Amino acid sequence: MKKTLSIIVSLLLIFSTILNVKAFETNQIENSSNEVVEDNTNDSSINEDDLQDVDQNENTEIVDDNENSEINTTEGNDEITNQVTTNSPEEVITPKIMYKTHVQDYGWSNYISEGVSGTVGKSKRLEAIKMKLDLGSYEGSIEYATHIQDIGWTSFVSDDQLSGTEGKSKRLEAIKIKLVGDIANYYDVYYRVHIQDNGWLDWACNGTSAGSETYGKRLEGIEIKLIKKGDQIPENTQNPFIYPGYIYYSTHVQDYGWLSNIGDGKTSGTSGQSKRVEALKVSLCNLPYSGNVEYSTHIQDIGWQSYRKNGSISGTSGQSKRVEAIKIKLTGEISNYYDVYYRVHAQDLGWMSWTCNDSKAGTEGLELRVEAIQICLVEKGENAPGDISRPFVEQGKVEYSSHVQNIGWQNYVNNGNTSGTVGQGLRLEALKIKLGDNSYEGNIEYSTHVQDYGWMNYSSNDSISGTIGQSKRIEAIKIRLTGEISNYYDVFYRVQCQDFGWLGWTCNDRIAGTTGGGYRIESIQIKLYPKNITNPGISHLSCITFEDKNGFKVCKDANGTLYEDAQGLLGMKSSYVLRVNKSTNVVTVLAANGTGDYNIAYKRFVCSTGNDTPYGTYYTPVKYRWRYLVGPSYGQYCTRIVNGILFHSLPYDQRNPYTLQTSEFNKLGTTCSHGCVRLMCRDAKWIYDNCGLGTRVDIVSGADPLSKPSAPKIPANQRWDPTDPNI
């Protein structure tokens, strides 16, 4: 009995040991690094026939016939040593990809695992796609995104989800496919597409784009393959995707509309055609990073618009408004890896310098159109595409305030706005000018020509030039820039003067206004213009100088040109004085200066007086279109001076302009009349038309302020006055 119990106990110990060994072997296999040692022997096994009787208190060793399996058990010791080698690893199952497409007019195709899904040669668009993986022995999934007509890139979907559209008749234009999870460590996914006009493109792989973007080309067919890493890949992989560039753009151009997309630094717009860019679209394409491109345009009459992004329109269409400047920036992940550079071709300036990352390119405040643009991406740390010295030019900032008669100091105005008054007859008495927030250092200096004082010393940077409380008018001004800013800007200015209105523009320390004439300045405009761009120019009518000559004032323009007929310089006046010089046979028309004195030599006429022409001062009482004269004869455009003394044309035999007394005409400029003042028809008519009744006439002898005009001669058979406006 005792022996039987001993055998039973031994068998139980052996069975327990076998169970522990099997559990240990399983645990070792699971926790090893998948290490498998090949063995050509059979698997270890233990059965009852191999057991030997042993005493419960003795050490027991069980050895299997399989020499590669050994189990050692020691009584009283929990340590179990196990060595297992097997030659039967679990069989690896190859994964498969399944895909199907939704085709124009046909609908959904069946799933396939190889070959073409879609059509070739039938001009049918793919509208949607689904795909899934039979993973086999691997874990993971497949993800895919499509570029859809009018929509753009969709988000990635996975595992039999639809990418694209149904029932909307929208074409797929491109696709990206990628593996995720464990399977991506062992396999690559390759795919190629058949597209409109181009046919089969090259193979793409692992999330890169296949197809086209911006060209409106439909996908017509697709082929997808899973290829084990290290295995042979498809031959052609160079050009799986057609696109304008990593950054591409289009401009809306005057008379042309939207131009085709172009990218990576190429020119969009025109050059040499004077066509304005009116709007802009910018997009990113086929980059390995996420993010956006954002942009803002400065528009004529509108200013800076809010930012647009990723192909939306910035600018206007159908409003004939020019783009004047632009800012572009990258946002999101891509901004960590790239800078966006851009430059514009601007009216008058041509190609400006490059700038980047939301800086301004173009002009502002100068009314210059952008005509073309170039944009490109540059990796961080790399050099700019070209010169970066002057990408943006703006009107300089200047502010000014006037002290006005009866009003005092006005509020500051800036950049070409009017300071002072217009149409109120009020004088400027003092002025302050200062620079605004400009990009360059420097000063603005100015000097005023003041009644009774003449030119004042230069003031600068908001100090006062002129007088306060003395009732003295400013008559002229000079303004200049000094320091760094003078290298980049010109200061332009013009004044509105008593009797003359706005004079022309001038710049850079030249005189604006009048000197010597007693005319007040009533208002002023000042602008800073960048050098070498279109500006108002320097007008010869920006300044009028009245110089003394023989007791009168003669007129000169800003270039110093003497005006012996100042009508074009001074304009028409409301009244005049007529000075008849018997000794020179010259009539000088005198105009009033700013204080009302008739001392400005306005114009002169050659005449013929007579010995009986009386000296003295007279006032014209009456006028006649034709008048009977002594001789007998007739005169045109007659203005009576006194008694029988008139201004009139050369004599005619009849009241007919074709009966001119030619011999008398050819005596013009000599003392030959019966006492009247004879003039060419044109000059007699000017007095008749412009000198009202009561005009003062001074008949004198002496020196004239202006030269004597030459008197023309006509042939003996010519019976009309060549200056007669009616002939």
TrEMBL record:
<dbReference type="GO" id="GO:0016740">
    <property type="term" value="F:transferase activity"/>
</dbReference>
<dbReference type="GO" id="GO:0071972">
    <property type="term" value="F:peptidoglycan L,D-transpeptidase activity"/>
</dbReference>
<feature type="signal peptide">
    <location>
        <begin position="1"/>
        <end position="23"/>
    </location>
</feature>
<dbReference type="GO" id="GO:0071555">
    <property type="term" value="P:cell wall organization"/>
</dbReference>
<comment type="pathway">
    <text>Cell wall biogenesis; peptidoglycan biosynthesis.</text>
</comment>
<feature type="region of interest" description="Disordered">
    <location>
        <begin position="34"/>
        <end position="88"/>
    </location>
</feature>
<keyword id="KW-0133">Cell shape</keyword>
<feature type="active site" description="Nucleophile">
    <location>
        <position position="676"/>
    </location>
</feature>
<feature type="compositionally biased region" description="Acidic residues">
    <location>
        <begin position="36"/>
        <end position="68"/>
    </location>
</feature>
<keyword id="KW-0732">Signal</keyword>
<dbReference type="GO" id="GO:0018104">
    <property type="term" value="P:peptidoglycan-protein cross-linking"/>
</dbReference>
<dbReference type="InterPro" id="IPR050979">
    <property type="entry name" value="LD-transpeptidase"/>
</dbReference>
<feature type="active site" description="Proton donor/acceptor">
    <location>
        <position position="648"/>
    </location>
</feature>
<keyword id="KW-0961">Cell wall biogenesis/degradation</keyword>
<feature type="domain" description="L,D-TPase catalytic">
    <location>
        <begin position="576"/>
        <end position="700"/>
    </location>
</feature>
<keyword id="KW-0808">Transferase</keyword>
<dbReference type="GO" id="GO:0008360">
    <property type="term" value="P:regulation of cell shape"/>
</dbReference>
<feature type="region of interest" description="Disordered">
    <location>
        <begin position="708"/>
        <end position="727"/>
    </location>
</feature>
<dbReference type="GO" id="GO:0005576">
    <property type="term" value="C:extracellular region"/>
</dbReference>
<dbReference type="InterPro" id="IPR038063">
    <property type="entry name" value="Transpep_catalytic_dom"/>
</dbReference>
<dbReference type="InterPro" id="IPR006637">
    <property type="entry name" value="ChW"/>
</dbReference>
<protein>
    <recommendedName>
        <fullName>L,D-TPase catalytic domain-containing protein</fullName>
    </recommendedName>
</protein>
<feature type="compositionally biased region" description="Polar residues">
    <location>
        <begin position="69"/>
        <end position="88"/>
    </location>
</feature>
<keyword id="KW-0573">Peptidoglycan synthesis</keyword>
<dbReference type="InterPro" id="IPR005490">
    <property type="entry name" value="LD_TPept_cat_dom"/>
</dbReference>
<dbReference type="Pfam" id="PF03734">
    <property type="entry name" value="YkuD"/>
</dbReference>
<dbReference type="Pfam" id="PF07538">
    <property type="entry name" value="ChW"/>
</dbReference>
